[in-house]
Amino acid sequence: MGIIEKQATKNMIISYLGAGLGAITTLVLLPHLLTTSENGLIGILISVSSLLAQIANLGFSTITTRFFPYFRNKDKGHHGFLFYAIIVSLIGFVLCYIIFLTLKSYIISSNIEKSKLLVDYLFYLMPLTFFTLFFTVFDTYLRATYNSVIGSLTKEFFQRLAIILMLAAYGFNWVSFPLFIFGYIAVTAAPTLVLMFYIIKQDEWHIKPVRGFVSKELRNEIVRISLYSIFSGVTGAIVLYIDTIMVNQMLGISETGVYRIAFFFGTIILIPARSLYRIASNIVADAFKNDRLNEIRSLYIKSCNTQLTIGLLLFIGIWINIDNILRILPAEYESGKMVILFISAGYTIEMGTGINQVIIGNSKLYKYDAFFVLIMLGVIILSNYLLIPSFGITGSAIATAITGLTGNFLRYLLLYKKYDMQPYNNNSLKLLVIGLITFLTGYFIPYLHNVYLDISVRSGIVSLMFLLLLLKWEASPELNQKIRKNLPLLLKK
Prior knowledge:
- By secondary structure, this protein is mainly α.
- The chain contains 19 helices and no strands.
- It has helices at residues 3-33, 36-56, 60-71, 81-111, 116-120, 125-144, 149-171, 177-201, 216-251, 253-289, 293-320, 322-328, 337-352, 356-361, 366-391, 393-419, 426-443, 451-473, 477-492.
- Helix 3 (60-71) runs antiparallel to helix 4.
């Protein structure tokens, strides 16, 4: 897989280093140093700013991924592509700011009682939105130039390390909570500036518009896809972040804090997928441009198999240690147990569907995905509305899992019907059996009465059994090849 394999591997390593830092933050620092309401404040600010940033992007990330191959020419400054990305995003931000000012009074009145902390720090929302937006702009641009690692490094590693330092400063009473929130927002915004300077250093900062390059046919295609991208981008962002917003609106900021901490464990499972998506989108776009459908089919099959393998192992690792996780967290987070189960299970299924959305988004079928996202939006809003009153934050987790399952099932059917792409085979069944065997093994291991020793022993036994069965049954050809290649080197060390 060449570029995909190398950069996806680098991104995954960086992401898991970041996940390690994130685990320290989520398991040790955030729940023990901050109240559930303070954690909820951070969660809602990040969720809403991410949603607004996606809206403000006006679908240009999709345009970058799909059409940058037509503009790519470093000697000619990529025909001014970055200039258009910045201008469109600035216009989108201004529109979002106007919407925010219009709704500000309603936001304050609807949160003044159950989420007063959000009202007190609402002024941070738009600055955070601005930097989130332009991180996406610069990161997408760099990924289009086949440089996806710097974004992961700054966002997943250095930002999380800086957050740990900020939390430590707060824990030692070196800073007050208002100053801590300011610092948290600052370190969240910093990667955007890093990427901007990196682009300049790499001599990729070309913001002079180039006229006459885009043909009428290409311009019409860009405009047409832009309209769908805006629609699917906005609805997709709502699908991603509406759960946190609805939990806050229906249950309050304290429950939002519990939900946010529990949700973290599910996102660990998606790390390999996100690492692959960062570079696969541009490869798939190039393949469609040159009509290399067999290459896309092969990548689809490999991504489903590899991601299902990793997803199953991570899900098993989380769930066999769920009681240990809850012992580490403060007692008020115990209600997040089933949130962890449903979010983790939902994301494991999503891992097993590979790069289906990437393929559809870069094909002539992109209109279908906009329709699918609209269906998912209806499912998640309705299911949250019905389930949260009865099941609390667990209801929101169930709604998220149902929504993901719905969207991925529709995408699977579309690729199967239109391109005859069916990525599952006997290896998929073998992986499910391996997962069941290793889960039951880990589940029945007696508790060792020391939470950290138990995590180490339980996880070690399960991982070893999973690895041995994987090699014996040849259930994941790509991973088996890597394991056999690297295992002798590890044993020598």
